[in-house]
Design goal:
Blueprint (H helix, E strand, L loop, with lengths): L2 E9 L2 E9 L3 E5 L6 H9 L6 E6 L2 E5 L4 E2 L7 E4 L11 H10 L10 H8 L14 H13 L5 E5 L7 H18 L3 E5 L2 H7 L2 E6 L2 E7 H4 L5 H5 L5 E12 L4 E6 L2 E6 L10 E7 L3 E4 L10 E12 L4 E8 L2 E8 H6 L7 E6 L4 E2 L6
Parallel strand pairs: 3-9, 3-10, 7-8, 8-9
Antiparallel strand pairs: 1-2, 1-4, 4-5, 5-6, 10-11, 12-13, 12-15, 13-14, 15-21, 16-20, 17-18, 17-20, 18-19
Helix pairs in contact: 2-4, 4-5
Amino acid sequence: MTLLVDLHKTLGTFTINAQFQCSNEITALFGKSGAGKTSIVQMLAGLIKPENGRIVIDDVTLYDSRHQIDLPPNRRRVGYVFQDARLFPHMSVEKNLDYGQRRRRGTGGSPKFDQVVEVLDISHLLERKTRALSGGERQRVAIGRALLSAPQMLLMDEPLASLDSQRKAEIIPFVAEIQREFLLPVIYVSHSIDEVLQLADTVVLVAKGGVAAVGPVENILNRPDLVRVTNTGDAGTVIPARLTKTDPDFDMAIFSFSGGAFQVPAPSGDVEIGQSLRLRVRARDVSIALKKPEDVSVMNIFKGTVASVVNGDGPQVDVSINVGETLIWSRITRKSLSELSISPGRSVYAMVKAVAIDKPGPRH
């Protein structure tokens, strides 16, 4: 299933101009607050009408200004999960889920009630009133209700924003599982790099109402200008890695990647030998040396070759280093760049402290 989006809309002094395409995967709309992410998903759902453009899922056109097609929200077969669950508090969980089924409008029997309940692990909640649920439980029920409407696409507008870190960790595996189980395009709005790292296949980088870039997570989150564009997080490198060994004596783990292996504190959650995740190394936590350091506390030292030097803001520059097949970014001062005579092609050592590596959890 393929989703084609081409949307144009003026909202006061703000203009939305967004074009992207995705398939049966989780696509993250990522950017700072006010960038236009929610407006885009509301146009996909039919809650806001674009001025012109197209929205097409496979051979079904939801909106086409040229051919004057504009399906109302109740005919779009789009599931919408809001930041707040928006469940009916006077109803039980089962009746909230039944409401989703009644919205199918003859679209068939998939997904099944029992299948959704099992995937989301909410069978023990069916008789409860929704006001008695935790925040994470409410969001799982909201996801189930959206799925039971038999959508062709699932929109999730910052569904974890109101949850604490423990509840977020509970929900993330379920979001990944529903995409795998039901093969739906999922549009996931977020300004959290950790959520994007764990969930997304593709990132649509939204800035000032437009799409600044579209591509795989590793490509988009590796941009040195990410902070300037999104006003969130830190510039850094996303590295696909695989757990190869653990050291329970020191609570450490070794993750292999194309350029070697990282030693890091053992990640939280259930991560098994052989399992993959994405490590994120912030550019400001990567130091550069011309000779291999000895007798230092830094555990991750990689020999590489300088690929590029990109001017940053003020006294800083961003240096990319090829380590095997992996590009690692380092942010250093212009003074260090000059004193070390760092330039493309020079052999250097990239040093990363173990405690500086972000480990968002298993890649689901």
